[in-house]
User: Fold this.
Amino acid sequence: MIERYTSPRMKSLWSDQNRFQKWLDIEVLACEAQANLGNIPKSALPKIKKKARFDVKRIAQIEEKTKHDVVAFLTNVAENIGKEGRYVHYGMTSSDVLDTSLSLLMREAGEVILQDLDYLSLSLKKKAFEFKHTPMIGRTHGVHAEPITLGLKFALWYAEVRRNIERLKRAIETISVGKISGAVGSFSNLDPKVEEYVCKKLKLKPVPISSQIIQRDRHAEFMIVLAIIASSIEKFATEIRSLQRTEILELEEGFARGQKGSSAMPHKRNPITCERLCGLARLVRTNSQAALENITLWHERDISHSSVERVIIPDSTILVDYMLTQFTKIMDNLLVYPGNMRKNLEKTGGMIFSGRLLLALSGKTPSKEDAYQIVQDNAMKAYSESQNFKELIKNDKRVKKYLSEKEIEECFGLDYYLRNVDYIFKRVFGHKR
Assistant:
C-alpha cells in the first residue's frame, strides 16, 4: 500500500538504476579530475565518457560470482568501455563511491520531504485561519481545562512543522558531503584535488577528514530528524483520533463515499489512516535507533553498518514521504464539528471558568487560599451531585459577599479567554496572512 502512494520521485530515487547512475557519475567525474591532473591519459577520457554505461541485470549476474556490488558494477562498466576501463576507479576504494553516492541520494530524498513539509504547513496554515475563532475546550490530562480555539491548535501544529523544516535543512547540509580519499581516508593513492573536483561538480562539500568512510554520526542526525518528523505526524494524528471518539466528536477523519468501517458493524467510521500513521511512526523511530548503532565501527571501518543502512535509509525516507502526503490529505479533508465543540464547552456547567473566578475572588478575599477553597467547594459539589457549577456559584453567599452579579457573570465569558488569539497568530505567522 505504501509503495502505491509513494511519490514517483521518491520511488525512482532508490531504484537500482538511479543508484548505479550515481556511481557512474562519480566515477566519470573522478576520471575527469585524474585526466586534468595528468594521472591518467587525457586521450582515455573521451572514450570513457562516451562508452561508460551499465546494465542492472548484468551487474546482478556478475555479483552472483563476485559477491561484491561495486566490483560487479566496475566490471560491467569496463566491459562496455574496453581497454580504457582500466582507468576507471583509479586509486579509489569502494566507499568513495558508495558513501558519496549515498550522500547524493539522501540529499535528494531530503529535498522531497522538504517539499512535503511545505505542503503540509500550507494546509495547516489554511486551517488555522479558517478556524481561528472557533472555540473549543482545551484539555490537560484528558480533562477539560480552559477554552482555546481550533485555530490555535492548528497554529501550534504549523509551528512544529516549520521547526521540522529547519531541522531537516540542517540535516541535509550535514549529510551533503563527499569522500574521495581512498583506503583508510589518507589519500595514499589519490590527489586531494580529485576529491575537491568531484565534490564541487556534485555540489557537495569534501569531508574535512574521514577514515575509509564518511562518519555515520552524519547519517544518524538525518535519521533522527526523520524520526522527529514522524513523531510529529503521530502527535497530530493521535489528537484527531482522540477528538473523533463518539463521546467527543469534534474532529473526524474524512470518510469517502463507498468506504466501509467494519465488516460486522455498518455504522462504523474509523480514523484508520491516522491509526496507520501512528503505527508507521514506530518504524521510523526504530530505524533511527539502528542509525545510532551504526556510528560505532571497528577501527577505520567495517561493514556492519552497510546492510542496515541499505534498509533503514530508503525505508525511512519512503515512509516519511508517505506519512506527510497522507496527513496533508487528512487535513485537507478533515471534518470539523463546531456544534459539538460548543456542547463540550458547556458540558461541565461552567466549571471551565473556575480559573477566572478564582482570580476575581483572590483580590477581595482575605487570602488566595480562601478564594480557592470557595471555588473548589462548588466545583466538587457540581462534580459529585451533577449540579450546574455556575448556578452554585451564583447562589453561594460567600461568593456574593465579594462579587456582584455582574462581576460573576463576567467570569463566565469566552471572550476573556480568547482575547489574545490575534496576538498569538501574529507571533506564529507574522503580520501577513
Remarks:
- The first strand starts at residue 135 and ends at 140.
